[in-house]
Amino acid sequence: MLFKTKKEKKFQFISEGEGQPIVLLQGLMGGLSNFSKLISFFSTKGYKVYFPELPIYDLPVLNTNLTSLAKFVAKFIEEEVGEPATVVGNSMGGHVGLILTLSRPELVKHLVLTGSSGLYERSFGDSFPRKSDKEYMKRKAQEVFYDPEVATDELVDEVFSIVNDRGKGIKTVMLARSAIKHNMENELHKIQVPTCIIWGKQDNVTPPEVAVEMDRLIPDSDLFWIDKCGHAAMMEKPDEFNEILYKWLESRK
Fold this sequence. Notes:
The chain is an alpha/beta fold and 253 residues long. Helices cover 39% and strands 18% of the residues. Helix 1 crosses helix 9. The two termini are 29 Å apart.
């Protein structure tokens, strides 16, 4: 399904459907394609789904961190959505959602986390070793998923082009470092909004114990597992993910 990007003021975004707003936040190497089935599903179920393009590579160097991204999302919800939204974040996007929820809880109706950073994650670290080796990058991309076939040639090409673009590569490393530094273990107990945690049982990047700990620390949370699934559950097992989230949102109305 093709989605039309809107450009308004300082935002580029997709919006589909009508109804309760859902705002989707991508991971560091993620994009619109990660959420395409979720958008198609929820936009026909009484929800208006937004996918704002996060300014991952456009922030000034000194402001290339997750807090700046959370402020960007807050402005987007205020100016484009206009009411509290269900915020769905994968990987780094979940971490941004956590920061947003703590700093601006009035903008978040529900928080949904899948493969979220914020406590512990395995990452590239300070650099991209062998970034010019495409086969190596392909193996790294495949490790994100339970089924390596989900890492299509197109997705591998995307990752390869990012890490081999000097400007993008530097910003990517800076945001990865920001995620590692911004550990939220001592803050999660302050989250008051209903939180849905959907996790792949075979997530190699943010292992299952991260989901268990988030569920323990966040007061009003529900944890759901998807088997034979890695770090991007909404992409690898979209039908299961959508069904879990839809039932949970309906139960929280």
